[in-house]
Write a structure and sequence with these properties.
mainly alpha, EamA/RhaT family transporter, transmembrane, membrane, globular, transmembrane helix, EmrE-like, 14 helices
């Protein structure tokens, strides 16, 4: 298997693992809110990004205003905007319905990515995408019960916010890959650091606004170590794994893999998330959950095999979609 392809696959899987750690956040932050957690997480990530930039002063001097603006936009779309819509979806529709709709991300991203790039014949995508869809439906089936959809929450507002989150993440993935494609000499570490710094600054700007509306509990519960140590420790740990390492890994995958394949690899975030949730709740998976994760894994493995086979046997370039 081609080394670049292999590196891209493992990078996408690692990014999915890092992103999946977000599913355990509500169970480890105590009385603090997800907004508090996001603030700590993104500020720590921004500090790491700043250290990377400072250590590369020779490259930093050659960065253009366009680079800074591009990464600031990507940070807003993929970090702040995505976080706000996901959190809003969870608030309005609960912790089950919102993640279920976010499962649409790999399906939509694979379709949009393949339409843009023409990296694979559509008939070859049908089976892996179908398996991924079935796996997602099995894992998230409880979200679509009559009881869930008739809950007292403003569930339909949550669904709209979840769909907005799907759109933002797809936009981020496509825009990020396009930005890297026109900057082939841009070091991935520098690009990731720019996005992290921009995301941290934007979260700091959001903090006083959110505090006025009571979205943050830090001003009330206290910033001191005695009260917020768990928030700081978990926020810093997941920042390094999920945000810093995850962002870098996703950029590695974005440069080495077609969007249509990266999208199907990121679906493993759901499988990792289910496993993490089971560990937190200290229970075994149900038969449906086991089947869902199994089908997801089969779909991902099949996608990797198909893309690798096609990479080894290049076809005529597909015509551009109208």
């Amino acid at each position: 298997m081609d080394k670049q392809f292999t590196v891209g696959v493992f990078a996408a899987l690692f990014a999915a693992f890092g992103f999946s750690l977000n599913f355990i956040v509500p169970f480890i932050i105590g009385d603090y809110t997800t907004f508090d957690f996001a603030l700590v997480r993104h500020v720590v990530a921004a500090l790491v990004g700043a250290m990377v930039l400072v250590s590369k002063k020779d490259i930093l001097r050659h960065l253009t205003l366009r680079n800074w603006l591009a990464t600031a936009g990507l940070a807003f779309i993929g970090y702040v905007g995505y976080f706000l819509t996901v959190t809003g979806a969870a608030i309005f529709s609960g912790p089950v319905v919102a993640p279920a709709f976010l499962g649409l991300v790999p399906i939509v991203l694979a379709i949009v990515g393949n339409r843009r790039e023409g990296s694979l014949s559509w008939h070859l995508l049908i089976l892996p995408l179908g398996l991924v869809l079935v796996g997602l439906l099995l894992v998230n089936g409880p979200a679509f019960t009559t009881e869930s959809l008739r809950s007292d929450r403003s569930v339909w507002i949550g669904i709209m916010l979840a769909l907005a989150a799907v759109a933002l993440w797809v936009w981020f993935a496509i825009a990020n890959q396009a930005a890297l494609a026109v900057r082939p000499d841009m070091p991935l570490g520098i690009w990731s650091a720019l996005i992290l710094v921009a995301g941290g600054i934007q979260m700091l700007v959001l903090f006083p606004i959110g505090a006025v509306f009571g979205l943050f509990q830090l001003p009330t519960l206290g910033f001191g170590w005695s009260s917020a140590s768990s928030l700081y420790l978990w926020g810093s740990s997941l920042s390094l794994i999920a945000t810093v390492a995850g962002a870098w890994a996703w950029n590695v995958a974005s440069r080495r893999l077609p969007v249509a394949l990266a999208a199907q690899l990121i679906v493993s975030e759901t499988a990792f998330g289910v496993i993490g949730g089971l560990v937190v709740h200290a229970r075994w998976p149900t038969e449906i959950e086991t089947a869902g994760v199994g089908v997801l894994v089969v779909g991902v493995v099949l996608a990797i095999r198909i893309f690798h086979r096609e990479q080894g046997h290049p076809r005529q370039a597909l015509p551009q979609a109208c």
